[in-house]
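--- STAGE predict ---
source: upstream dedup step, 1 unique chain passed
mode: sequence only
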Amino acid sequence: MAHPISGTLALVRAAFVLAREGVVSSFPTEGLPAAALLLHRLASLMARRSADHAARSEKLSRALNRLGPSYVKLGQFLATRPDIVGQKIAEELSSLQDRVPPFPRAEAIAEIEATLGRRIGELFVEFGEIVGAASIAQVHRATVRTRDGELRQVAVKVIRPGIRQSFRRELEAFAFAAYLLERFVRSTRRLRPVAVVETLAQSTRIEMDLRLEAAASSEMAENVANDPGFRVPGIDWERTGRDVLTMEWVDGIKMNDVRALAEAGHDLPQLGVNVVQSFLRHSMRDGFFHADMHPGNLFVAPDGTIVAVDLGIVGRLGQDSRRFLAEILYGFIKRDYQRVAEVHFEAGYVPRGQDVLSFAQALRAIGEPIHGQPAETISMGHLLTLLFEVTELFDMQTRPELILLQKTMVVVEGVARSFDPKFNMWSTAEPVVSDYILNQLGPAAKLRDARTGIDALLRIAHRLPDFATGMEVLSKNLPDLVENGIHINDDDLLELAKESRVAIAIGHVAQVVSAIALVVIAWQLTVG
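--- STAGE serialize ---
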C-alpha cells in the first residue's frame, strides 16, 4: 500500500481531475462521510462553472484517460463488476476506450530485443509501423521467414515501456483509497474494496505477461479446433516472451464495421448466431471463455469464420457453475421457478437459512414478464442482471466468474443485435444449452457418473488386502510398540484380526456387486 502522504496526494490529484471534468458531481452521495460530502459540493461548484454538456460516460472516459492507463484499466475492470458500481455506471464504463498515444517504434524494437535476446533483423524480415495502441501494449505488423523458407505476415504485440512501474505506483494509491473506504465508509464494506483492488492488481499482472495471453490463446485454439465458424490466431512461440507476443496476422473485417461486412457479402444474421453460440459453447462445454469479446476484438475472415484476438482477459467456470448456468436458463425456459431456486441452494450460492419458496417467488417476478414478450426483445444478459439483483435480497454471495460471464454475454448479445435487430437469443442458445444438458445431465452423464463411482469403489476394494497386510505388520511389531507405552490387549488383537479377514471378504463382494450394479444401471438407462 502507498505511503499515506503519497497516497493522499494521488487521491487529491484524481479527485481534482474528476471534478474538473464534471464527473464527481454526478455521482450519488448516499453513505458518504462529512468530509467526502464537502468535497462533493466543491466538485459540483466546479462542474457548474464548466460549459461542457457532454454525457457523463464521455466525461468519465476523458477524465480516466487524463489520469493515466491504470485508471483506464480500473474503469474497464469495474465495467465488469456492476455488483460494485451499479448497473448504470457499469454500462457507462463499458464504452470506455483507451486514448493513449503510441510509443516510438525504436522503443518497441528495444523491448523486443531485450525480451527475446536476439536482434530484430534475426527475428523479422520486416518490422512495420504501428497498427494499434492501447494502455498496456501496442501492435505492429511484421514479416517472418518460416523454417520452410516461406514468408508469413504476423502481428507483434509489445508491452508499453515502463507500464509496470506506472501501474504499481497507481495500484498502491488504489489500495490506499480502498483501505480508507473500508475503514471509514461502513456501507462499502460488503463490497470489499480492498479485495477488489487486489483482484485488479492480479488481473493486470496476468495481462501484462504476454506469455499467459499466448497460453490462453493456445488453450482456446485446442478447445475450438473442431468448432464451425470460430477460431483464434496461431501463436509464434519462437518470437513470444513476457513482453512480446507474436501471432498469425488476421486478414479480415472487424465486427464493429457492419457496413463493410455487408458490402463484402457476409450473412449478417448468421454471424450474430455464430458469435453467440460460440461464446455459449466455450462457456458451458469448455468452462473457458474470452471475457473481452467486444466487436473490436473480433474479425470476420473472407470465408465467414469469426477470428477472436486479445485474450488478455479470460473467464473460467467450474463444472458446478456450468451446471448452475444451464439449469437456470433451462428452468426459466420451462417456467420451473422452484427448480431454479433449488439450483441456487444446491450450489451453495444462497445461504441455507433463506426460504426456497420465497426465493422461487422472487424468480417468478423476473421470469413471468419475459414470457409475454416477443422472443427477439428478450435479452439473456438482462435476465441474468435481474437475477443477480434479486439474489442480493437473499444474501447470495457475489460470484465474480458469473458476473464476468453475464457482462460478456451482454456484449456478445449486443454484437448479434447489431447484425440482426430481430435476433432471437433463446432460439440461438437452445441448441447449445440442450446439448450441454443432454451430455452433462442426461442418461449418458448418469451412466458416466455411475461408472466413476463404481471405479472409486473398486479402487477401495483393491486396497483392502494392503490394509490386511498392514494389520499383520502391526501385530508383528506390537512388542516394540508396547515398550514405548502403547498398550493393546489380546481382545483388541483378536478383533483387529477378525476385521482384516472381513475386509478382504468385503473387497471381493464389492467387486461383484459393482459389476452387477453397472449392468443394472446401463439396462435401466437403455429402457428409460
